[in-house]
Amino acid sequence: MNVRTLLVVCGAIAMVVALTTGTSGFSSATADRSVTVSVAEDDTALLGVERSLSGVTNGTTNLTVAVTNQFSDTSFTNVEVRVGDRSTSLATTTGLTPGDRETVTFTSVSCDETIRLTATGPAVTVTLTRSVSCQ
Known about the structure:
Layout: H1 3-20, E1 47-57, E2 60-69, E3 78-83, E4 86-89, E5 101-110, E6 114-121, E7 124-131
């Protein structure tokens, strides 16, 4: 056998071995990660929400909703408060910036209505659903 034939045979064997052995890679991995979640009351949350009722008459009331941005570095570009089929936007042209507080009053709200609040900003969305309770 000459040197050229020996090199071709060795090369062929090396290719077969390389093609039939694994790469020692992995196809999946798992990791345990811990998560901490804190729950706050509506008025002390990062998006603070306060509700107040006045003048309950015949199953309806006047509802005032105050929203305070208590984030230190996040502004909300849209804050919508919806009660039944009525809604209003609280974010002004500059948005609801940290420390800002906006208030809206809905009149003649049924005591069994639902309040829905949605606030959106860069990389954050806050949603809240609460009941109007006249008791």
